[in-house]
Every structure is written in C-alpha cells, then in structure tokens.
Amino acid sequence: MIENLGTDKTMESEVSETFIRSLDHDDLVWFVDAIQGMIMADRRVDEGEINFLRKIIALLADKKAAER
Asked: What is the C-alpha to C-alpha distance for residues 18 and 43, in angstroms, rounded to an integer?
C-alpha cells in the first residue's frame, strides 16, 4: 500500500511540472493532445482545467503545435 503520496499539493505540482518538462517534443505534443481530449470528453470545462492546459501549451517550443 502506498502511503502519503500526493498529499502535499506543492510537491505534487513540482513533480508534475518536472515530469512534463522532461518529455521530449513528440511526447509533449501527445500529452497536450491527450489532456485536451480529456478536458473535452466530459463537456464541462472549468477554470482550473483551462489554466493547466494553458500552462502545458506554453511549454511547447513549436508555435504551430501550440496554436493548433
């Protein structure tokens, strides 16, 4: 059983950002597409989801991929 994983929100967001920044270009583009698909799947978009999507899109170096 895993104990206390993800209980510290600050550490959780730092680990998530570190992981996302470690992705190569193709994996990051896939990740952004996957997140976008998950957000749209429930047809309910909240501000937190939009903020997260904006944050990961900003990590894309390819401006055409970001605009898409």
From this structure: 29
Tokens of residue 58, six digits: 């900003």
Q: What is the mean pLDDT of residues 44-59?
A: 87
**What is the C-alpha to C-alpha distance for residues 41 and 15, in angstroms, rounded to an integer?**
25
**Measuring CA to CA, which residue among 9, 52, 56, 3 is closest to residue 28?**
56
pTM comes to 0.65
Under the banding of pLDDT at 50, 70 and 90, the label for residue 2 is: very low
Could you tell me the two tokens for 25?
């270009």
Q: Rounded to 5 degrees, what are φ and ψ at 61? A: -75, -30
